[in-house]
Design brief:
Largest interface: A-B, 39 and 42 residues
Number of helices of chain A: 11
CATH architecture of the largest domain in chain B: 3-Layer(aba) Sandwich
Helix content of chain B: 25-40%
Number of domains of chain A: 1
Strand content of chain A: under 5%
Helix content of chain A: over 70%
Shape of chain A: globular
CATH class of the largest domain in chain B: Alpha Beta
Structural class of chain B: alpha/beta
Strand order of the largest sheet of chain B: 5-6-7-3-8-9
Radius of gyration of chain B: 20 Å
Radius of gyration of chain A: 20 Å
CATH superfamily of the largest domain in chain B: P-loop containing nucleotide triphosphate hydrolases
Order of helices and strands of chain B: EHEEHEEHHHEHEHEEH
Oligomer: heterodimer
Number of domains of chain B: 2
Largest sheet of chain B: 6 strands, mixed
Number of strands of chain B: 9
Chain lengths: 269, 247
């Protein structure tokens, strides 16, 4: 006879099985109805980059950017895009799976987590796009630094934690307040423009006070690290530390809110 | 003496919800400002105690809103009671809705694995069951068709086929047995009888007294969140039928 347990706590194994299924399903269904299928995950950031590179290389000067401009824009775009897709798709994750949450014993967190992992997979595909552009731009002076790829490995977990924390937080808040979706969308636009995706902070010639505000933006640091890595510069220990502290803090806050509200969430769905 | 499979002691469930549904921040802030967020308390379960032994099945009857489904969800561990204690032993599968979590865009085959995952089975474990499930659902021609092209009856059949093939110690069932056409219903009833013979314990919420009589030895009659009568099925169902006549 098995030992008596309180309402059969879920094993982590079950959560992992569900997670695997969810991610597979998400990646597969994303571009199910299009002729090019999975190619879109690579094409999408590529086309985006073309538009941005075309528009902004004329508008803003390229001064202060040592990295090749298309590579600069694309790298900014895919890193910010990872965060954006992760959080916007994870936000309705709890509400959208109402049926599963109220009718089966599924741990809630697998739904936002599944979306963040799906975005991570998409991010990996966009890296292919980045690589393609870098190869195309070799004649324009782009160099490959294989060491840079190695430096990316410690970056990824911090970025992942940041996205996951934010996603958990948003998905829980969304259960209670549905209009957070619209507020967050506006906020995302603002956030995007405040992040040096297609410009560099240096060329803005900001007074110190404003430069400081720019640096309060976590995405600034994640981008800085990423671009350092692909241009063969070892990111400073301060940047690394900031990435991890912010990542862990975001995860901590998201998880805490989830734990605290977990029991009551079901009544608001 | 063998320990009971399920024990619930003095289970109470209170909901405290806003009187009107406020699901956006704007309204919440405005109402809060005017101090108009009011809460209403419902007591859905008022101290329910029950015990189910191995190989014994329990029926839950009562009128709509008596707290049957809430009790079932508490026993399943989906929601936690406000107070009281629930102890379950052995594997348990809650079947509160057929095909909960079916993905309409995915094919029947993919959904068998997905649904299996929701019930806690790995891909490999489901592969061994796959043939059986398909055979039972009689849907082998449609396994590569997306679920959105299935009829309601086909969906229920697939859901039921997956559920009964799982063979847990305890099966919680909420009003899902009236699915499909008559021959399929008969097949379901036979399958449940077979499961019962092999020692599965059922906890069934149903409005079909016939079904309760056939499958459950013990029955609890819930009335407004409290146990009105419990014990031998025959006696409890008779009492419930008596009560219903008086209305």
């Amino acid at each position: 006879m098995k030992k008596g347990t309180k309402a059969n706590p879920l094993t982590m194994r079950k959560a992992a099985v569900i997670l695997g299924c969810l991610v597979k399903k998400n990646v597969k269904t994303q571009y199910r109805r299009s002729a090019l299928g999975i190619c879109w995950t690579v094409l999408n950031p590529l086309l985006n980059m073309l538009v941005m590179a075309f528009v902004f290389s004329r508008l803003f000067g390229r001064s202060g950017i040592t990295l090749d401009y298309p590579v600069y824009v694309l790298s900014g775009n895919i890193v910010f895009g990872f965060m954006r897709t992760a959080t916007t798709t994870a936000m309705p994750g709890l509400v959208g799976n109402y049926d599963l949450i109220t009718k089966t014993r599924t741990p809630y967190f697998v739904f936002p987590l599944g979306q963040v992992i799906t975005s991570l997979v998409n991010f990996a595909f966009s890296l292919v796009a980045l690589l393609t552009v870098m190869i195309i731009r070799i004649p324009a002076g782009v160099k490959f630094y294989w060491s840079g790829l190695l430096v990316l490995f410690p970056w990824l977990p911090s970025m992942f934690l940041f996205c996951l924390g934010l996603s958990l937080f948003l998905s829980v808040v969304y259960v209670r307040f549905r209009d957070i979706k619209h507020i967050y969308n506006v906020f995302l636009t603002l956030w995007m423009y405040l992040t040096p995706i297609f410009y560099s902070v240096e060329i803005l010639h900001l007074p110190d006070k404003y430069a400081l505000i720019m640096k309060l933006n976590p995405m600034y640091h994640y981008l800085l690290y990423f671009r350092n890595a692909i241009s063969g510069v070892l990111p400073s220990w301060q940047t690394t530390l900031i990435c991890y502290v912010v990542g862990c803090a975001a995860f901590g806050v998201g998880m805490l809110l989830y734990k605290v509200t977990k029991k009551k969430l079901i009544f608001y769905m | 003496m063998e320990e009971p499979l399920i024990e619930a002691k003095e289970v109470r469930m209170k909901f405290r919800l806003p009187a009107e549904r406020i699901d956006n921040l704007k309204e919440y802030v405005i109402k809060r400002f005017h101090r108009r967020v009011q809460y209403v308390e419902y007591e859905v379960l008022k101290g329910v105690t029950l015990e189910v032994k191995r190989g014994e099945s329990l029926g839950l009857i009562g009128r709509n809103g008596a707290g049957k489904s809430t009790l079932l969800r508490i026993l399943a561990g989906i929601i936690e009671p406000t107070s009281g204690r629930v102890v379950t032993r052995g594997s348990m599968v809650p079947l509160l809705k057929l095909g909960a979590g079916f993905d309409m865009d995915a094919t029947g085959r993919e959904n068998v694995y997905l649904n299996g995952a929701m019930l806690g089975f790995t891909h490999r474990e489901m592969r061994d069951r796959y043939e059986n499930i398909v055979a039972f659902s009689e849907l082998n021609k449609f396994m590569d068709t997306p679920l959105k092209n299935y009829s309601q009856g086909m969906l229920s059949r697939l859901g039921f086929a997956i559920a009964v093939d799982v063979r847990p110690d305890i099966l919680l069932i909420d009003e899902i047995l009236a699915v499909g056409d008559a021959p399929f219903r008969k097949k379901c009833a036979e399958k449940l009888g077979e499961l019962k013979l092999s020692g599965t314990t059922f906890i069934i919420v149903s409005h079909s007294n016939e079904q309760i009589r056939r499958l459950c030895e013990k029955t609890i009659y819930l009335k407004e969140g409290a146990v009105a009568e419990s014990g031998e099925t025959e006696r409890v169902v008779a009492r419930y039928e008596e009560d219903c006549k008086g209305l």
